[in-house]
Specification:
Blueprint: E1 5-12, H1 18-31, E2 37-44, E3 51-53, H2 56-60, E4 81-83, E5 97-100, H3 111-119, E6 122-123, H4 128-135, H5 137-146, E7 154-158, H6 166-170, E8 175-179, E9 189-191, H7 194-204, E10 210-215, E11 219-227, E12 233-234, E13 238-242, H8 250-254, E14 259-262, H9 269-286, E15 291-299, E16 303-310, H10 320-327, H11 332-344
Parallel strand pairs: 1-2, 1-5, 5-6
Antiparallel strand pairs: 2-3, 3-4, 7-10, 8-9, 8-10, 11-12, 11-13, 11-15, 13-14, 15-16
């Protein structure tokens, strides 16, 4: 009998990106080779944090997770069972690999990674420290400042703190306001005047007790996906042109027709190489592993400014990493295989 390596695929979780994680997880499960792997999808509930083990077949025929957005419903997968932990379904002799298809807090921020470290299990993507730094936008920027990597002018504000003189610190309106620890543009918005600023700040504080207010940078929005552990390969750059919103917000990211994504980006070779060089530098300085994605604005269409990094980029069919990989001649199935290989190393 041919040996099959166990692969747990973690998805869902207690995050505002719960539904996106479910879509990523389903797509990973769909593209894992069932002849090569024993595929064990694990769905973590949004509210209670309950872990449910499902079958590959039943997960793939379940409802569209985006239909759950804005409701209190959980994804229903037939015959799924509650489990206390991964240790309850894995044997000591056959250590599985855990494919983390989770985004945002409790999944991309080092929390799950730390738990898996304690359990002695190998997992995909970055470790505890790199994951935590990538998720915490304030700490991420402090690292980049220390390393002289270009970032926007910004201020951080805690809940209850008086708003400083923004004009003096970061310039005139507009500003870009966001929570310090969310992904997928959750809680982010543009403020063009004082009234909008008050509204944006109030909205951002719904998701975090610490927020960032950035100078608003105008220019091409570019993202660079990377594959590898140390010294990763930079994939073709993608230029993002939002259509449904002013910036690349949640709706633009995950709904059809929300944005045009142009591969390769419409910039010259010198600027392309510079963005790829900076992206590799960010990946290495944070200590990222397996894969990552770095987002930029090209200020005045000349100067690349790093906005943030994603240590677990989206893996949905609409996501940027799979599209960049495809442009490099890497199919989705091969992309998943490569990510698992980097976890093995």
């Amino acid at each position: 009998m041919k040996f099959k390596r166990k692969i747990f695929v973690l998805m869902g979780g207690r995050s505002k990106e719960h539904e996106i994680s479910l879509i990523s997880g389903k797509e990973v499960v769909r593209n894992l080779d069932p002849q090569k792997y024993e595929i064990l999808p694990v769905i973590i509930s949004r509210d209670s944090g309950t872990w449910k083990l499902a079958s590959r077949e039943n997960l793939l025929v379940s409802e569209n997770p985006l239909d759950l957005k804005g409701t209190n419903k959980e994804l229903q997968v037939r015959d799924s069972i509650n489990i206390p932990s991964l240790n309850s379904v894995e044997s000591i002799e056959d250590k599985p690999i855990v494919f983390i298809a989770m985004h945002g807090p409790y999944g991309e921020d080092g929390t799950v990674q730390g738990m898996l470290e304690l359990a002695g299990l190998k997992y995909t993507g970055s470790g505890v420290l790199a994951s935590a730094l990538g998720m915490d936008k304030l700490m991420f920027r402090r690292v980049l400042e220390k390393e002289n990597i270009p970032i926007p002018k910004y201020v951080s504000i805690k809940k209850g703190q008086k708003i400083p003189n923004l004009t003096k610190l970061i310039g005139k309106y507009p500003y870009f306001v966001k929570p310090h620890n969310q992904g997928s543009s959750v809680g982010s918005s543009i403020a063009r005047n004082k009234k909008e600023l008050e509204k944006s700040i109030k909205n951002a504080f719904k998701y975090s007790d610490l927020i960032l207010i950035d100078e608003y940078l105008k220019g091409r929005e570019i993202t660079c996906a990377l594959l590898g552990n140390e010294n990763p390969n930079a994939l073709p750059l993608i230029e993002i042109v939002p259509k449904s919103g002013v910036f690349f917000d949640y709706k633009s990211k995950y709904y059809d027709g929300g944005a045009d994504e142009i591969i390769p980006a419409r910039i010259n070779k010198k600027l392309t190489k510079e963005i790829q060089r900076i992206s590799i530098d960010v990946h290495n300085k944070l200590g990222c592993k397996g894969f990552s994605r770095v987002d930029f604005i090209i200020k005045n269409n000349k100067y690349p400014i790093v906005l943030e990094t994603n240590t677990i980029p989206g893996l949905t069919p609409m996501s940027l990493l799979p599209k960049a990989a495809k442009a490099a001649g890497i199919s989705y199935k091969n992309l998943i295989e490569k990510i698992i290989e980097y976890a093995e190393k």
